[in-house]
Amino acid sequence: MTCRVIIWLALLFSCSYSPTTLATIRRSKDWPSGCTTRFYDFKVQTMKVTKLCNTTDIVSINGMYPGPVIYAQEDDRVIVKVTNESPYNATIHWHGVKQKLSCWSDGPAYITQCPIQSGQTFTYEFNLYQHKGTLFYHAHISWLRATLYGAIVIYPKTGVPYPFPNPYEEHVIIFGEWWSKNPFQLENSTLASGGGAPPAEAYVINGHPGPLYNCSEKDVYNIDIVPGKTYLLRLINAALQIENFFSIADHKLTVVDADASYTKPYMVDHLMLGPGQTANILVTADQPIATYQMAIGPYESAQNITFQNISSIAYFRYKGAGLTSLTRPTILPFYNNSQIVQTNMAGLRSLQLTNNLPLSVDENLFITIGLNVDKCNRQNPNQTCQGPNGGILAASMNNVSLTKPSISILQAYYNNLHGIYTDDFPGFPMRIFDFVNGAPNNSPIDTSSINGTRVRVLNYGAKVQLILQDTGTVTTENHPIHLHGYNFYVVGFGSGNYNPSTAKLNLVDPPHMNTIGVPVGGWAALRFVADNPGVWFMHCHFDVHQSWGLATVFIVKNGVGPLETLPHPPADLPKC
Q1: C-alpha–C-alpha distance, residues 375 and 388, integer Å
Q2: Which terminus of the chain has a smaller tally of CB atoms within 10 A, N or C?
Q3: For residues 245 and 516, what is the distance between their CA atoms, to the nearest angstrom?
Q4: What is the pLDDT of residue 372?
Q5: Rounded to whole angstroms, how far apart are CA atoms 124 and 95?
Q6: What DSSP line would sit under 240-295, residue for residue?
Q7: pLDDT confidence of residue 323
């Protein structure tokens, strides 16, 4: 029997349901049966790494950078014991895992849990019901995910084939950024300055910067290729502050999966992934025997941003190509080529729709996203107010910059604690203007935001449409927005201001994603059914924007019965 339900065995047995209730659940046709449980033991540790001529301490999992791969199959249960052996607070988020009835294991610090303090242990438990494809995990506190990340590879159930020809081999390719500075210090110094984040010292592919950087001629990732064979590359963007173009010299890339959801195959020369996004691509070794560059470089759509413009190079090396032979160069798009990004997005179509695409809407939300400049209210303004016109950079949704509380919002909600958050996050902008072309920009006079821990409450089962609108305050920008606890259908996107009378929505085969790049100077329309009770974070996946407050929180209320009710917290939940 296959595992068909949306319920997690571990959570149900740990919850305080009566024996009669448990017996009723077990008799249900939806009770899972035959799932495999995968156990992993993660140690958060510091390790010394030498990059770019310097040796530094980083935080990683089990002494590996990137961290170990979690392998599982669709519908498996995963249990990860995390022991924090580092001197820093830590949490881990399982990015793209929907966490049905396991909100306590989602991972964002002060949203669903307090941090795992040094010397403490916490066990994450979740089910991969109807998950297949490529996801990843990463730290979710401060900017610790700069080095603490790893892949989650979810295969189809036994006997279920891929909906595309079986590849000869599969390889995980993780994009990242490298700083030699401690990530906690990096965040603190950036926030203290009031200005922007410093650019990365390098981009990395599977932890390797490649030959274009100092002292990195041999610090290069390599894939050995058999001519004529087709390879599945599982791409993950774990970068901290920037989006990336990816390309392989002289080879076409066929996208077959985005954010662990199958897509109709489509072919591209270059693919752009924002932080938090994943894609599975097929590449056929159909070129003359040689070594081909496989590269990532920046996509930077904002104005007046300093960024790293040296590409990270890996090798796609055919069998028979000499180790010393010249490599075929990759030509990446120009750093601000938004046309390729829009073409990438337009090509995404779900391979097969499930029955949970809302064709009607109960809750229609319109949320502006963008940057702000607050007035300087600090001492030593030359050092602490380095934003535009002597202000302090901030970011917001509907002009509210999220302030994280001192305990988790989930704990406050579950225990009915008052004074931790308010449930008045606006479902519509508090001020209406031409968001893209007429945004206030007389910073810092009219560009400040409101600070607060404001959440939006959704009824269980609500059919939600979410319009995300980029704004031109400070600068327009392509923002990678991630929603925890859900996949959503991207039913539309476009340039300029969203207009419901002219917007063209795709209600036939929209892509099913967990992270969407809201177009620079444009909008995206998302739909989902609020059928997962708990507290769910939505934020920009540029960590500096998240630190500035570009985030909000949804609380989805309980439905009816144990299959629609948030379970009680695990016994080992960390305390603040």
Answers
A1: 10
A2: N
A3: 15
A4: 97
A5: 13
A6: SS-EEEEEETT--EEEEEETTEEEEEEEES-EEE-TT-EEEEEEE--S-SSEEEEE
A7: 76
- Name the residue with tokens 């599977």: 206
User: Can you name the residues that pair with 417 across neighbouring β-strands?
Assistant: none
Tokens at residue 243, please? Answer: 């989006």
Helix (H, G, I), strand (E, B) or coil at 493: strand
Strands 37-51 and 77-84, bridge-based pairing: parallel
Paired residues of 489 in beta bridges: 512, 527
What are the two backbone dihedrals, phi and then psi, of residue 389, each rounded to the nearest 5 degrees? Answer: 55, 35
Q: How many CA atoms lie within 13 A of 236 on its CB side?
A: 26
Which residue type does 552 have? Answer: T
For position 11, what pLDDT does the model report? 35
What residues of the chain score a pLDDT lower than 70? Answer: 1-34
Closest among 169, 170, 176, 241 to 208, alpha carbons compared: 176
Centroid of chain to Cα 32: 28
* CA end-to-end span of the chain: 42
Dihedral sign computed on CA atoms, order 241, 273, 278, 394: positive
Q: In the chain, count of helices (H) and strands (E)?
A: 7, 33
d(CA 333, CA 312): 14
Cβ atoms of residues 395 and 470 within 8 Å: no
Phi, psi of 186 (to 5 degrees): -65, -45
Q: Which segments within 475-521 are labelled E, that is strand?
A: 479-483, 488-495, 512-513, 515-518
pLDDT at 12: 38
Integer Cα distance of 531 and 465 in angstroms = 14
What phi and psi, each to the nearest 5 degrees, are found at residue 14? -90, -10
Report the pLDDT value the prediction gives residue 355, as an integer from 0 to 100.
75
Cβ neighbours of residue 285 under 8 Å, at least 6 residues apart?
Answer: 225, 226, 227, 228, 229, 230, 231, 251, 318
DSSP 439-471: ---STTTS---EEE-BEEEE-TTEEEEEEEEE-
For 140, residues 6+ apart whose C-beta sits below 8 A from its C-beta are 91, 92, 93, 107, 108, 109
- The answer to whether 236 touches 134, Cβ cutoff 8 Å, is yes
Residue 93 token pair: 């988020």
d(CA 521, CA 471): 6
Other Cβ atoms less than 10 A from the Cβ of 505: the count is 15
Contact between 373 and 448 (Cβ < 8 Å):
yes
Q: What is the predicted pLDDT for the residue at 8?
A: 37
- Please report the sign of the dihedral spanned by the C-alpha atoms of residue 517, residue 521, residue 525, residue 526: positive
- The pTM assigned to this predicted structure is 0.94
Query: Quick one: tokens of 428?
Result: 């519509």
In this structure, which amino acid lies at residue 445? Answer: I
What are the residues whose beta carbons fall under 8 Å from the beta carbon of 335, sequence distance 6 or more? 297, 298, 299, 300, 307, 309
Helix (H, G, I), strand (E, B) or coil at 404: coil
Residue 9: what pLDDT?
36
Q: Which of 517, 537, 575, 519 has the alpha carbon at shortest distance from 274?
A: 517
Beta strands in 131-197 (DSSP E): 133-139, 149-155, 169-178
Please tell me the predicted confidence (pLDDT) of residue 27: 28
Structure tokens, 473:
């305050």
